[in-house]
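All the exercises in this workshop are built on plain-text protein records. The record below serves as our worked example for the rest of this section.
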Amino acid sequence: MTDRISPEHRSWNMSRIRNKDTRPEKCLRSLLHRAGFRFRLHASNLPGKPDLVLPRYQTVIFVHGCYWHRHPGCKNATTPGTRTDFWVAKFQGTVKRDREATDKLIKQGWRVITVWECELENNPGSVIQKICQQLTGVD
């Protein structure tokens, strides 16, 4: 499958993709806040700059987009049909950085939770319930 838009337009589209304060991230922040949890945002002093940091629970949360972070088995984790080698290398680099940041955080004593964009879209109630259970040990 070939790209249907020009390289210039594709570049413009990609430049508009945000890396923080995304819709899934804002959704999760709202759910956590309503559940009574307080957190810090985008801690630049921690590996990987976690999207949410809950110091009281020694927990960080990453909100990953399925496309960029390659959610295994997700229909949204597609690979473009043009310049496939470039995209595969780019995606592999992202996954490697994610894994390295997670390993470093765990070594520093943090609990790491990853929330996927499609999970938040499809069933936000289940996502917040799982997080609450992981943080507090109760439903």
The two ends are 46 Å apart (CA to CA). The chain has a mean pLDDT of 89. The chain has one domain: 19-136. Residues 84-107 form the longest helix (24 residues).
